[in-house]
Amino acid sequence: MRMRNAFLLGIALAAVHAPVSGDSEQASGRPAQSDGGTAWRHWTSGTAYTMPAGRWEVGLFQSLRHAGSESVEWSTHPLAFFLIPNLSVKWSHGSRNGFQIATRHSLTYPTPLLRLLSRKGIGGLISPEFHIPHLVSIYNEVLVSGPIARSLLVTANAGVCFAVKSGVLDERTTIDLPVVFPRLNVFYPGYGFHGGTELRADGFRRWRIQTGAGVFYYPAADERFAFEQKGLLLWNQSRTFQICVGYQLTFGEYPFGTQWHLFGPVFDLTWGWGGK
Amino acid sequence: MVNRHFLLHRLNPGWWMPWIMLSIFACDPLVNRFDDIEKAESYSTGRPVNPPAAADTVHVMTWNIRFGAGRTPWFGDGCGDRVIFSEGEILRFLSGIARELNRLRPDILLLQEVDVKSKRSAYIDQVQWLLDHTYFDHAAYASMWEAQVVPSDGLGRINTGQAVLSRWPIQDSERIQLPLRGDQDALTRYFYLRRCILKTRIALPGTGVFYVLNVHLDAFSTDDTKKRQIDRVKEELDKLAVSGAVFVAGGDFNLIPPGSDSTDFCIEDKCPDESFHQPGDDPLHKEGSNFTPEAAWLQQLYDAYLPSVPLEKYLIDQESYYTSTPDWNGFWNRKIDHLFTNASWIAASDSTHQDILDLSDHVPVSARWRLPEGAVR
Description:
Chain A is mainly beta. Chain A is built from three helices and twelve strands; from the N terminus they run αβββββαββαβββββ.
């Protein structure tokens, strides 16, 4: 029973992480070619590129993604969908001066997850003495990606997140864990800003390196700032399978003060199919 | 034109491998498991320090302050449902505690169940708060339970333990691990409290080597855990005594004096939906309420050292020395807070402050300690 609870909790926390963070955890560009960007269009998670129409990608911890057309890509976290319903759409707006531009719009409803975690006994991350109202977060961001050298793709993203609540959410319901806290923090002040950059580089043969950093800023919150940085080493078997391993470094303001965390090794297996 | 492999040339394994290795080995554990002996945390005020000059006597007090939650029912130690208190609630009780300390004015204070930035107590660093709101200038703190998150009942982040507050500088302090509970499964034990001794060396004018040891033994074990813990405490005190040091040791022992009239509090402590002592009850006794098998475990300290309340005096009028009750509506009904020394107490200087009713589920216990004969002055 405890193992099952721990497994569910793991999925739930992964779900909190994945949809709101915009799937920016694990991905890579294809082998570098100076082709104006089409080579980056597989394993495009976290970039402004959309996948070729008809392509699917899914990872152990990443969202399920599908390109319904050449310019629109849908994603959701399938395992966690029933605990934390979430949907994201990335919409390509073409390229300007060699830089690909897209917007991403995400909707997340974490109430079922938070109510599940608000319980007596093992698995209770939130005290059951507090009521969890209906909560919805709406995140809109702009992504810009472009190759700055033969083997280097850089992506910048910035966005604003709003929260809608059906009632008062007690401030003592926070989950004071890295990765989780900065993403749920928006439900207390009601709005916040996210932004970041990412660099991915082709390496030797099928090896890739990817590094990125992001910030969360909630100007109306007591805990305003969080920073995350990651480094990943990826291996692409082909355009159908990818393995990555790496680390994530976090710094943030929490209700108890500031704290650094280093996570590792983080890993994922990703599969892709369909499309051209 | 940038070389295809330029990044790997720059980010060669010598650069990125340490990061990967660091990420593997440097991850923060959810729970601090502590070393057997490690340095305790030091605190001080920002005020100009002006310690008192040499004194013939030292007013010593021990008090389990129950993380500033007063006697409000809490899920973990009573029959309550509350888990997380508001800042206003905690500050109200802390203010009451500070008011009593400023009135009673102990020179050295041993606190148990002091929270440091815990979720249940509004993230207040209670050691620093009490330093800032009393006349003490120095403190040392040792945690008995430190977890990034306790994934049960919404308890969340916790850091709670013992503190020694002193008017004189604390020269050295260390945390000594006590044996863990032996009656829990591995997962529960991983997230559970790790009881300890906070051992401090205090620069008390007129004494040679003077130690204060703050003890908090297990509350809910049903096996011989407390026996092993009190044995470890005794071992530490014996070492100090043999070395020629003088000490005061005190705290919440969760053990009653030998010879106590009442040793089984299962019926007094039971919650409305609980049943004990009846055929078929499982468990037969309430955890932490049946002292009968443990009634003699404190005898070794009474035999070897001087209690602030002599055993004969206690046995004549036990109720006057009761220090605690888990019943948030009831009066004190057991004595589990004690002070011992290998020097001497001033006769009849002990106080069990039973009039302090609403600030904790324990009352402060104090006595005046006399500098040993022949001490350098």
